[in-house]
Prior knowledge:
8 strands
Amino acid sequence: xxxxxxxxxxxxxxxxxxxxxxxxxxxxxxxxxxxxxxxxxxxxxxxxxxxxxxxxxxxxxxxxxxxxxxxxxxxxxxxxxxxxxxxxxxxxxxxxxxxxxxxxxxxxxxxxxxxxxxxxxxxxxxxxxxxxxxxxxxxxxxxxxxxxxxxxxxxxxxxxxxxxxxxxxxxxxxxxxxxxxxxxxxxxxxxxxxxxxxxxxxxxxxxxxxxxxxxxxxxxxxxxxxxxxxxxxxxxxxxxxxxxxxxxxxxxxxxxxxxxxxxxxxxxxxxxxxxxxxxxxxxxxxx
Length: 287
């Protein structure tokens, strides 16, 4: 779509709003920024999908590191949609890592979760090389990437199997994350139906694949955000998650912003946005 990137072909995005978002995100992510050092396509394995982009505040040391997973309904998406957050995070002294993961329907759940966990482990292992602190990782993502981030953060029972130390991940911040995949009678042609036909290996996986079902006990700080004009499924699942963790021992934050589903990600171009304010509170709480 943009010549600066070498992007593998993917199916068409389902709606014009998604195409518009992809165009804006890619365009905003393709150029360098003062004070940001870029490292593109760092391998974390042998596969073509096993790559991450890393953006660090120039000269930074022992930095907190945000790992941000792209969205795209589990069937689309590029890590190159995420680079525009780099200057905003650098302004707060934080490095950004944007990994890839394999997409449906070529693979089914839990493959993309396993890829995400492998990426987290590899980024932690290489963090010192680039000035990052391997014990100060925060997981985030947008839309389906928010789902991936939430599931990776909440499934601490899987961390050791993938080489992730128990004190590595300090918080999770899904943006417009799809937190509930259980829809027993999905409307024909809907994303809910596509979850069963294209994303899950078995219909019964909708329980284990839903972050909503892994919130108790909550073992790390959580910041849920979504848009007031977001999709119904996103708003419903985030509000259900908010209710589920109302008595959690760990601190949790919840924000709805005056944005649609794609605006909740693009708003993060602004380093002064409230989302970064909450993130910084989380960072201080976890020191």
